[in-house]
Specification:
This is ECF RNA polymerase sigma factor SigW. With about 170 residues, the protein is an all-alpha fold. It contains nine helices and no strands.
Length: about 170
């Protein structure tokens, strides 16, 4: 992403005014991601805020190698995990609010929320990152800290399970 690279270069050169532009670039996607992983909108907003605070705090340690998107999602993943540990509740509650732009189309197309909720946690996370967040398999492998082949295997298994559930629902 050329725009992202330019923003990162300007921030690295101490032009912090571009930090807001970088946050604006990723805010909608990270917010949508956090909505899937937190019990309500307020908690999701807090998680997004914490994600970008951590990103800014540790920006000097980040070495840009073309994977900034994976880096920011990894931070968001860790923040959401911390929130769940503190709250000790089940991930993806039944009343998950999916009212953000783009979610209703996805949800109405395949009733994605219900299908994904049935998956085991590790597969669910990969499906969400791949299809709800449109991340590449390599980015997912980096975020989850697992081999690319494991991501491929879990995704394939998850899709087979979703297909099986769809067929079961048709009968």
């Amino acid at each position: 992403m050329v725009r992202e690279t330019r923003l990162l270069q300007k921030i690295e050169n101490e032009d912090m005014a571009y930090m807001d532009k970088l946050i604006a670039l990723y805010y909608p996607d990270i917010f949508r991601y956090c909505l899937w992983h937190t019990p309500n909108r307020q908690t999701a907003e807090d998680a997004v805020q914490e994600t970008f605070l951590k990103m800014a705090r540790y920006f000097k340690k980040y070495v840009h190698n073309g994977n900034f998107r994976a880096y920011i999602y990894k931070i968001a993943s860790n923040v959401c995990t911390d929130i769940w540990r503190k709250k000790k509740t089940e991930p993806l509650p039944e009343d998950l609010p999916c009212r953000e732009q783009g979610f209703e189309e996805v949800e109405s197309a395949l009733d994605l929320k219900d299908l994904v909720q049935k998956l085991p946690e590790k597969r669910r996370e990969i499906v969400l990152l791949r299809f709800a967040q449109n991340l590449s398999l390599r980015e997912i492998a980096e975020i989850e800290n697992i081999p690319l082949r494991t991501v491929q295997s879990r995704l394939r298994s998850a899709l087979k399970q979703i297909e099986k559930d769809i067929r079961k629902g048709e009968k």
